[in-house]
């Protein structure tokens, strides 16, 4: 994938050790509405452009159980079994407790993104052409950080073009996956399992409140005793 390689020239790689890594505030909800997701999905972008690639990667993360950038980059074709991808999150891979793999159901949209931007299918290869075997951990970390920044920059621009008044980043893909499933009636336990949380409490922190319209509809139950007037 020449386009993707061009986004990560080796001469531009530099260590970011010592830099302060900002953490997202747990009090800030980072979920989009389904209408916002629809706008992003159908937004027309120049074919084969970096912007289109970043939008598609973001959509992949959203639809693939809210997978984060690092885990997406580490996926290999050996993780694919028919219509599912199974993987262990990098942050839990070295824990002593038993960790159940996360299973992603490959819908047509996910398959299309892999076909467009992925490597040629080979069990030894990473699905997406970001990392390569033989790279040390520092090199891989830098590449993952660069891709994250690239996606964030383009998603913020796309959101602005669409009139979405949010600073959309990769975190929004994960939070939106959980929140939209909740709004569709999915059980919190199912959502927690799908995104690989060790506790339901952690999942609840991801779940944003319902839209104002949904709240108003729910609050109507409080005055259901009122008689209807002609």
TrEMBL record:
GO annotation, biological process: DNA integration; DNA recombination
| UniProt organism field | Phnomibacter ginsenosidimutans
One Gene Ontology MF term: DNA binding
Domain Tyr recombinase: where? 27-220
Q: Which Pfam families match?
A: Phage_integrase (PF00589)
Entry annotated with the keyword Cytoplasm? no
Q: Does the keyword Disulfide bond apply?
A: no
Keywords from the named record: DNA recombination
* UniProt protein name: Tyrosine-type recombinase/integrase
InterPro entries hit by this protein:
DNA_brk_join_enz, Integrase-like_cat_sf, Integrase_catalytic, Tyrosine_recombinase_XerCD
Xref: PANTHER family: PHAGE INTEGRASE-RELATED, PROPHAGE INTEGRASE INTD-RELATED
